[in-house]
Specification:
Length: about 500
Amino acid sequence: MKVTVNFRSFIVSMVILIALVLSCLLALNIPWLGFLLLSIVVAVPVTVAFIIKKKVPLYKFVTLIMAVALCVVSAIIFFVTVNAWIPDGIETKEYTVKGLIEDNYVADYRRVVVLKDLQLDGEAVGGKMKVMIDDNLKVFTLVPVGDTLEFSAKVTVSELVSGFTVNASALRNNIRYYAHTSTSEVKIAKGEMSALDKVNVFVKNRLTECMGNTYGVVAYGILTGDKNEISASVRESFSAAGIAHILAVSGLHIGFLMLLITFLLSKLKTPRLANFGINTVVLLLYCLFAGFTPSVVRASIMFLIGNLATLLGEERDGFNALGLAATAILTFSPFMLFDAGFIMSVGAVFGIFNFAPVITEALTKIKIPSKIASAVSVATSAQLGILPACIIFFGNLQLYSVLINVILMPLMSVVFIAIFVALIVSLIPIFKFLLTVSGFLVKGMIIAAQFCATLPFAQIAIASSRVAYSFYPLYFVSGAFLGSDKKRLLSIISWALIAAIVLILLIV
């Protein structure tokens, strides 16, 4: 059976980095086996590179050597992060805590404060602390970001790695400690907000002022991905409806933003080089505003690579752009491999590139209009891409997610762009009413999500299992990378295996 694999440099480097990070995790639990695999992951590409050096194009040799160099960087960062996560001598016990307020909000009727620039018993420590505060008198309603808190309480240390489980959420938010106290135990000292804090506070206050708290915090979540103050019922409705991605800043948001910027630049008829510069600045500022989440960084890198390719007159290669974005993230933040948001972001884009063209072609053959076929194929492909993550991290499947995304996607794009534009225009006081109008769109989206969530079998429970990771190599076999004279047979076998695993997990 003749088999060919379409070579993409950054997809190769991404796969090698994934193997490297998994080997590092194994080394923390079974050192001899983990370090053996680490050696193999590094040695094999180097060996293959020099064996094929004179037989293949130079870029393939460079790809393998580059991947090894990135593996060394990623491995160093991995082990340094583990060792530096909690300083020696710090353990779960009572401390005098002092820190600067980075965030102050109410989540499901509980006051939560996030502290940075931490000191425990007078000693500076890295990371942040999440503090639950009994605030019956609502004292903290008037405490701004930038003030300093000091109190004594039992501090719980958050483990980064426990066995083969990684607390990727704690790493993403840099939350290393937890504590619980009450208002009466806390001393508050006035401080000064940073420039970025001032921007975030202004945006949140302006949205809640014009839309009301319920819709304002949802709008803020749509813009920034910050879901802290969104009620559990609203979050669950979005999740059950299969549109939770609108509350997690991702490639979808970058697409909406760039659609708006591209439209404006086309009207201004700016040169292509200027367009690239403006897009770069806008994306950098938006990444900063959204906290450099992996999905935003991934989407921004991919957009800029595509933009640069167009500028240079080169053909866009979505797979390679995805591989470059993932490679960059895994090199400098290897623990993102275990983050649900990162996996879903990369998986969704991989699914779209891998399956959307085939599904679109099949739908157009049965006389479905091209626009509808394209929308259905993108939604279906994205859902296939995130299917493993839904099983592993959430233990559920959204039955109507494809249909709901096709129907609500136009509304989601209008809501995002309306909030973004209205927020900027509202800097002129007489136009603040536009944010109020945008609030009705947010309300409409929430109502739609709540309705979809109440449909029969909207969300189906499924056993959470890491065996779902096997879907990705099966996708690879049945997708665009692999060419073979037995391609149809391999695809049938792959999808049969995926269906069998899903069925078994549903029964379990």
